[in-house]
Structure formats: C-alpha cells, structure tokens
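ingest -> validate -> predict -> emit
validate: passed (alphabet ok, no gaps, 310 aa)
predict: started
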Amino acid sequence: MRLMLALIWLLHWLPLPLLGRIGEAIGSLLFAAMKTRRAITLTNLALCMPERSDAERERIAHRHFQAYARSVLERGLLWWASEARLRRLIVYEPQEPLTAMPAGPVILLCPHFVCLDVAATATMLHLSACSIYTRQKNKVFDEALRKGRTRFRPNKLFSRGEGIKPIIRAMRGGLPFFMLPDMDFGAKDAEFVPFFGVPAATLTAPARIAAAVGAKVVPVVATYLPNYQGWKIRYYPAWENYPGDDVVVATQRMNAFIEERVLEAPAEYFWTHKRFKTRPPGVPSVYRKRAESNNESNGEDGSGDVLLGD
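emit:
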C-alpha cells in the first residue's frame, strides 16, 4: 500500500487529462480481470435498468470501472495538490457554495457517486463539517484518507460505532453533517424502500436526524466535467417539508432523488457495491447465483479489493 500511495503521489503532478486517461486504462484492465466485481455491477444494473439491453448495461459497467479507477488516482490531487490548482479544476453550482447553506443545522446529503471525495474536498475548501468515518482495513491508507479529508479545514470525523449522538452535538454546535446515505449496512436502522423498483435496505438516519435537530437537507453531487476538465459540484436547493410525519415516505423520497441523479450520470454511480445485499425476510440473495457461476469468493462484499472495495 505504501508503494501504491507513492505512485498516486507521483501521478498527481501530471496534467489531469493524462491522469484521467491512465485511470481509465487501469479501469478497463480491472473490468476484464475482476470477475466478481463485474458480476456485482452487472447484477445491479440488470435490477435497476431492466429496460436496457445487455450490451448497453455492459458498456455502462465498463465505463463505471473506468470512472472509479480514475477517481482513485485523482485522490492524489485531492490529498496533495495545491488549493489553487483544485479551485481551477472545480466548478461549483451555485458558484458560491455558502449561498446554498440555509440557516441552522444542515445535512449535506452526498450519494455514492465515484467523485464523492471531490464533493467532500470541494466543500471543505469553504467550510468545516462533521461526518461518520469508516476505518479502513489498511492502516497506511487509513491515515492518508484521514489526513486528506482534513487538510484544508478542521473537520470532525466520528466512527460508526460512536452512534449518532456526537453527530447531533456537532450539528447543534454549527457544523454541517456531510452524510453518505445510500449503502447497505444491514436491516438495523433501515427500511426496505424501493430503489429503481427493487426493495433496498435504506438508512432512515437522514430523516430521523433532520427531525431530531430541525435540520435542512441540502443534497450535493459531484460528477466529472467533459474532456477531463475537472469536476462539477452541484448543491441542490434544500428540501422543503422534509422529513414530514412519515420516516418511510421521507426515505422513499430520498431514494427517488438519487435515482434521478443516477440516470443523469449512470456510469458514475457506485455499482460495484452490493446495494441489495440485505434482502427482505424469505427473499433469496440476488448476487449468489452470479458469484457461484464465476467460482470466486473474495469476501462478503469484495472488501479485499484495493481499488473497488471502499
């Protein structure tokens, strides 16, 4: 891992168009080599986009591997490039992000697109925040990740095991909560609500926290600019009348919003994650058949994969 980080550090000096193309070339190799991850990706796409042909979903999957591998190399820019260089590569919408922040507690809701670390860094250039942090298995990578996420401004990173109380205290103290809401962490504190029509164990925490502290929810999504020009960070208007009286309805509303953003940039959503790993009682796994057909087992969620196993 030290060698890999050293390589990412060296590569961050390259012009972004060259760095991006190198990342995409690595992604193409990974798409060919990582059969289990490819199977997970194609399963997710088949469930979420059944109206598309097999060939079209294959193309989206291939582009996703390219986009994700590119994002890993581009973390070198986020961790080590100068603030001036980053500001040249980031396009904000609105141009001044702080104008998107309503008064009072705020949840910055950031779905799992491959550029989510860009969204975090872009936000950090303007304000401090708090977030829930999952410790990485590799200590060297873990340290680099923590330093990268706190390099410009002090940010509070809480472990998932600490629960939600430290987050609520930090929000009441004036820190926005940068939240990643759309991964499968099991049935605890989740509801099965549709994601592209498929029941998905979805955290209800955004709605519950918003209700507990009276927070406004401001979605933020980072995507690639065309022609390797950098990244676009869009802060959406704060949701009105959220969460309302029904947590499940509020959670459905969140998933519907994420679906709309996915359809705008389908190759950039995090399809290599087992989004439908947790199934309703009595419903079989949607992944087992493909995994067994490939005669591979890299762990429950492929966490042994360095590039694709966040």
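The longest strand covers residues 216-224.
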